[in-house]
Design a protein that fits this description.
Elements: E1 3-10, E2 17-23, E3 27-33, E4 38-40, E5 47-48, E6 57-61, E7 68-74, E8 77-83, E9 92-93, H1 97-101, E10 106-113, E11 120-126, H2 138-168
Antiparallel strand pairs: 1-2, 2-3, 3-4, 3-5, 6-7, 7-8, 8-9, 10-11
Length: 171
């Protein structure tokens, strides 16, 4: 069917782009522009959104290698494929997603590529059924501590990547 939700990304090193779309039934497919024409990904469909009203996929290119990553909802899990400039990898599951999410379906998927290298952050949310934190208390403190720990880890990773990039270019 026709795409109702679309996301695209442009290669940083080749004259190409990848568009991924989700139709009204939740089927997620990908296409690649090679500078002259569009062609369907050989691994279509790349996923199936449980809730067709949300974008259950994303696409992004790594800035150095130029490889593209497509991640998509697949029932209670996530799966991915990589475009390496000449072919698509077979669909594979994102390890441990179902265990970490309590087997809850991802409804919104976002990839955040690093502008300095070939790393990405994958964010996926769903209906985890977690207890609502309604106010101050032990649960709120535990959540705040966990969030701070993640932010510190990400900040350190960004600093390491920046230091590595600076060393590579002789700064």
């Amino acid at each position: 069917g026709s795409w109702r939700i679309v996301e695209s990304a442009e290669s940083p090193i080749r004259d190409e782009a990848i568009a991924v779309g989700q139709d009204g039934a939740g089927s997620i497919t990908a296409e690649r522009w090679d500078g002259a024409a569009w062609s369907a990904a050989s691994v279509n469909p790349v996923g199936s959104a449980v809730n067709p009203g949300y974008r259950g996929f994303d696409v992004a290119y790594e800035s150095s290698s130029g490889e593209a990553l497509v991640v998509a909802s697949a029932g209670t899990g996530l799966q991915y494929t990589v475009w390496n400039g000449s072919s698509w990898t077979a669909l594979a599951n994102v390890a441990d997603y179902a265990a970490l999410s309590g087997s809850n379906s991802p409804t919104q998927v976002t990839l955040a590529p690093s502008p300095l290298g070939d790393s990405m952050i994958l964010l996926a949310n769903g209906q985890a059924g977690n207890k609502v934190i309604a106010g101050p208390g032990a649960d709120l403190r535990a959540f705040e501590q966990a969030l701070e720990d993640i932010c510190v880890q990400l900040a350190r990773a960004i600093a390491r990547e920046d230091a590595a990039a600076n060393a590579a270019i002789g700064r």
